[in-house]
Amino acid sequence: MTRTLFGMIVFTTLLCSAATSALCAPRTEQISGASAPAQISGASAPAQISGASAAENLKYYPDPVYKRLNNDDPPAMSDMTDLANQGDVRAMFILGDMYEKGKGGLPKDLVQARHWFEESGMHGYGQSFIRLAAIAKHANNTTEAWQWYSLAIKNLDNDDTQQYAIRARKDLTDSAKLSDGDIDQAHKLVSAWEDARDKHLRDEKDAEAEKEKQQKEQEEKQAQDGAANSSVATTATTGQDDKKPEQQEQENDNEQN
User: Fold this and answer.
1) How far apart are CA 169 and CA 148, in angstroms?
2) Cα distance between residue 64 and residue 103, in whole Å
3) pLDDT digits 0-9 by tens, 157-191
4) Distance of CA 148 to the CA centre of its chain
5) CA neighbours within 13 Å on the CB side: how many for 91?
6) How far apart are CA 105 and CA 74, in angstroms?
7) What's CA 228's distance to the chain center, in Å?
């Protein structure tokens, strides 16, 4: 029951905090030990941020610390982690989102966030590159941010998010005063990442094929063992039936004696 209630809370939070191309508007949450921020009066509220740029401007309030009530309770987001490990790209993206913000009962961990965003991007979820670019920008790694924006442009469809990535890359080039050498280096990073992605996907495919092969061999062996056991049992029964009546009677007398 504890796990079900926690899952419902996490799922509700994800509907807002893990949105992709157009995140939900900043929300006011009740903070333990303090009142929620008062509404601004006497002036118009700031215009709502729309589009992918919201990902870099939203403020996030900390979630309650996740604590197990029982020793056998699962770790935080265990179901989401299982889905991600099974290849669900949305689950990978959500884990990256939760680790980046330290939400959903998970600690804030940019290493894990980058890992899951990259996994999601490698498996075709282009929104992840926008988030990776944001992490790189916040770390003042402008060349890497340019790389991620470029990958977003290449992997997203012609939609608002792709147009945002195009504008963001241009703004980054201008604001950071990136040189031709910087951009050449970023292009090399793009190529290296794509090579690593292709190898990663090939390795996954080979591992899955090997797993299926071993499973098939095991099933065939079990079928052969079952057939062999059935043959032995049939032979033993047939041999018993082929004995002369006096032989069977003598064996029964021996067993009883």
Assistant:
1) 9
2) 9
3) 888 999 999 999 999 999 999 999 999 999 999 99
4) 19
5) 12
6) 12
7) 44
Answer yes or no: are the C-beta atoms of 76 and 106 closer than 8 Å.
yes
Amino acid at 99: Y
Contact (Cβ atoms closer than 8 angstroms) between residue 62 and residue 54: no
Structure token pair of residue 27: 């929300």
Distance, CA of 230 to CA of 227 (rounded, Å): 5
**Mean pLDDT of all residues belonging to the chain:** 78
Q: How long a stretch of residues is the chain? A: 257
C-beta of residue 3 within 8 angstroms of C-beta of residue 73: yes
DSSP 8-class letter at 55 = G
pTM of the complete model: 0.64
Residue showing tokens 């993206």: 93
> Phi/psi of residue 31, each to 5°?
-105, 130
Q: What phi, psi does 204 have (nearest 5°)?
A: -60, -45
Residue with tokens 């591992």: 207
Distances (CA, A) of 186 to 37, 102, 115: 42, 29, 20
How far apart are the C-alpha atoms of 121 and 128, rounded to whole Å? Answer: 5
Average pLDDT of span 147-156? 97
Q: Is the dihedral of CA 105, 110, 115, 121 positive or negative?
A: positive
Give dist(CA 143, CA 136) in Å, integer: 8
Kindly give the interhelix angle for 89-101 and 110-122, rounded to the nearest 10 degrees: 160
Place of tokens 């939900």: 24
What is the rounded distance in angstroms from the CA atom of residue 118 to the CA atom of residue 131? 10
Domain regions of the chain by residue span: 1-17+52-125, 141-224
Q: Is the pLDDT of residue 2 over 70?
A: no
